[in-house]
From TrEMBL:
The chain crosses the membrane at residues 6-22, 34-55, 67-88, 100-119, 125-146, 158-183, 189-210, 230-249, 255-274, 286-304. Belongs to the auxin efflux carrier (TC 2.A.69) family. Its main location: membrane. This is AEC family transporter. InterPro entries: Mem_transp_PIN-like, Na+/solute_symporter_sf. It is found in: Cell membrane. It is a multi-pass membrane protein. Keywords: Cell membrane, Membrane, Transmembrane, Transmembrane helix, Transport. GO terms for biological process: transmembrane transport. One of its GO terms (cellular component) is plasma membrane.
Length: 305
């Protein structure tokens, strides 16, 4: 459990550094801050994803836990999408930002320590990373990029989703792992170095974005943010429990599926939103709230299961 607390400590500390640097004017607002997100989007996060997936065991990708978590992700996204269409009347990019915020969980810097020290098995996390990056990310990015109209824009949005750097990195990493190849160390070492910069860049930009802005500020984004937060912390774990129970999962597999579903919203959702300049407030505030509230949610799940 100490390592889980360490994971939370890392997140809050690096966010705090970004906030302080922004307060002192070292990290500028607007385009200056977004350079962090763009570097993460185009270089460091793809490096992190490739180095993680390429060295993983592909036999774990078809585990029932992975299927349950993926199913609960899709259902939760769908619930937010329907609520948004009926009550919020958002455009497609903003709605996609909220749907992703309600379901796309932090499988890297929070998922790994929690899998190791709460579930007791890290093999559940890397398949989740691959599914999120290779399957969900193309849809999310296509939705965030769907601000225009016409067949050409729809086509461009789909292409943008399928050719996003993280998606290509996940597919390439899976190909390397499935083929049993070993990437030479002179090639893999710099990729790992780049990947190590991904999380700090995203978290510092996130912290800088909080400067001069309040979470849950009154306005059209407050209710969608609260909805996404509630879905992420309560509905998604409940859906995962329901699917896992119907599928006959018991013991550690049931526990793993529900705990992974309760992980906080991934900083990548904010990174995507910031890169495409849509739904930033909903993504930022949901990441902030779920990161703080996910620990008590997981402690409750641990007590129940």
């Amino acid at each position: 459990m100490l390592d889980v607390l360490t994971g939370f400590s890392i997140i809050f500390t690096v966010i705090g550094v970004g906030y302080v640097l922004a307060r002192r004017g070292i990290i500028g607002q607007g385009e200056a801050r977004l350079q962090f997100n763009r570097v993460a989007f185009w270089a460091t996060t793809p490096s992190l994803i490739f180095s993680s997936v390429a060295t993983s065991d592909t036999s774990t990708f078809l585990s029932p836990v992975n299927a349950v978590v993926f199913g609960s992700t899709l259902i939760t996204m769908g619930i937010f999408w329907v609520i948004s269409m009926i009550f919020f009347r958002q455009d497609v990019p903003t709605r996609m930002a909220g749907a992703a915020s309600s379901s796309y969980f932090n499988s890297v810097n929070m998922g790994l320590p929690i899998a190791l020290y709460v579930i007791g098995d890290a093999t559940y996390v890397v398949p989740a990373v691959l599914l999120q990056m290779a399957v969900l990310s193309p849809f999310i990015i296509a939705g965030l990029n769907a601000g225009g109209s016409g067949k050409h824009h729809v086509r461009d949005s789909i292409i943008a989703g399928l050719t996003a750097p993280m998606v290509l990195a996940a597919i390439a990493g899976f190909a390397v792992s499935a083929a049993g190849w070993t990437v030479p160390e002179p090639v893999m070492a710099p990729i790992r170095i780049l990947g190590g910069a991904s999380i700090p860049l995203i978290l510092m930009s996130f912290g800088a974005s909080l400067n001069g802005r309040s979470v849950l500020k009154s306005g059209p984004d407050r209710l969608p943010t609260l909805t996404a937060t509630a879905l992420k912390l309560t509905a998604m774990p409940a859906v995962a429990w329901g699917i896992a129970t119907l599928a006959g999962l018991e013991g550690n597999q049931l526990y793993a599926a529900v705990i992974l579903a309760a992980l906080p919203t991934a900083q990548n959702v904010y990174n995507y939103a910031a890169n495409y300049r849509v739904g930033e407030t909903v993504a930022r505030d949901t990441v902030f709230l779920t990161t703080f509230l996910s620990l008590p949610a997981m402690l409750f799940i641990a007590a129940v299961l």
